UniProtKB/TrEMBL annotation:
Molecular function in Gene Ontology: calcium channel regulator activity; calcium ion binding
Gene responsible for this protein: LOC106611672
GO cellular component: cytoplasm
Pfam families per UniProt: EF-hand_1, EF-hand_7
Keywords, comma-separated and alphabetical: Calcium, Metal-binding, Repeat
InterPro entries referenced in this protein's UniProt entry, alphabetically: CaBP1/2/4/5 (IPR043582), EF-hand-dom_pair (IPR011992), EF_Hand_1_Ca_BS (IPR018247), EF_hand_dom (IPR002048)
The protein, known as: Calcium-binding protein 2 isoform X2
SMART domains noted in UniProt: EFh (SM00054)
Renumbered residue ranges of the record's region Disordered: 1-20
Residues annotated as domain EF-hand: 22-57, 96-131, 133-164
Amino acid sequence: MGNCTKPSMKNKMKKDRDLRPEEIEELREAFLEFDKKKNGYISYKDLGECMRTMGYMPTEMELIELGQSICGGKLDFEDFVELMGPKMLAETADMIGVKELRDAFKEFDTNGDGQISVMELREAMKKLMGEQLTNREIDEILRDVDLNRDGRVNFEEFVRMMSR
């Protein structure tokens, strides 16, 4: 994070263990997903969304504090690991990781087009709830989670829906 960050917490916090290879891989998957320009950096504004896809719910205040400590408004993978590693190590049992979310999304996205349609959502809800929801209930769920109003649920919207 260069010279414009607060002193590293690495030295102040005793780690019980290092990240396992699969945890580093999960961080890499999340990082690559949000490296929108494919230039090896995540922008500060995408960091909050990235953290949410990993099952963390940062407050606006936490995001503001992180933003103030990030050089040039972006972080590279090494900085991302330094930031998210301790969070991952302290992860509670009820947090959902990005891999689990992606697996669930793929299961609901039965035609594999990267979107969950109304029909796919209806089937998914039937599996999850064990009962058929009415069209009105499905429309209500879709209205709540379909942020870009395209009538379908993409991965980011799905993550938001699952982390409520």
